């Protein structure tokens, strides 16, 4: 090529030879330009380089990153599963779930009660519209609360997240007999759990018999309390 | 059929050639750079080639393919097979040029292999001279010498008479030679 380029400077060179040399040298130049351009494109756009060590390092780095990511994903999964499992078996969460699952409504005034207290009516209306604070206020205004009033008053506390007040009321009216015994045992147990008094909850849950309302749920809750 | 031709239709095959003649390599790159890794893998798998040798051979095949396109030596048929074949030929040619057998045994270097080092130096001077040229000269000489376009085709493209283009080519060559001669004199 060196000689050919020098040949171009010869004043006696023919047009044909001149064209031939230009064709050759410009091809060389443009081919080199394309090689440079494509090398960059291959490296930048396709990750292909001539240096296999770089490629290997890149592959190794990529492999390392993949391993780290996979390990991180596994750890995250384990933590999530543990968290999920622990959350799922947390008595507090279960109690909250049981409380939310069932819609609790007041059936209205008991048969036989003729002297309807205005506050009772308002308390019941508020209770059934889930205005528990307002319901509590009206229940407290009833001069002579019946056992039914107290039970729903206690439920209003429980549903208003006032667990201590709910427990105090349920403890007051809970007995081995009476029309609300099964219900009070159940909701009082939930109130204990939600108030983080699992020992008391466990004792009460054991009192819920096979034939009693929510016996299966009570056993499930008891099982998870005993796990702790 | 299109699979054998890297997804090119007959029409796109024609367009690719027309683009290359004008030194527009965008379409060519879109089609062929995608095949680079596949071709390298083929050379490494079939001939136990090293990564570097496969890379060089595939690059040489790309350059050769461009040349054959503009020379009108490639037909729409089975470009995939031909490209792989040329890459294989380039691999063996390079190994022979480097006096290296396929299993890596290095033979005595031939004296003629020293020549390209000097050519690169000369190529540098040509590049510098090339930079002095105006864009219209660069385009004309590139289309004609590298794209193998006839002066009449360039004239048609430029909407000028062939005589005007011939005259322009002469002026461009003189300018390039003057620049190259000047640089050669200054160098020596």
From TrEMBL, chain A:
Keywords: Membrane, Transmembrane, Transmembrane helix
SUPFAM superfamilies per record: TPR-like
Domain of life: Bacteria
Keyword Transmembrane appears in the UniProt entry: yes
Transmembrane segments: 64-84
Keyword Transmembrane attached: yes
Classification via InterPro entries: TPR-like_helical_dom_sf
Protein name as it appears in the record: Tetratricopeptide repeat protein
Organism from which the protein derives: Aquimarina mytili
From TrEMBL, chain B:
Gene3D superfamilies in alphabetical order: Winged helix-like DNA-binding domain superfamily/Winged helix DNA-binding domain
GO terms for MF: DNA-binding transcription factor activity
GO biological process: DNA-templated transcription initiation
Annotated protein name in UniProt: Sigma-70 family RNA polymerase sigma factor
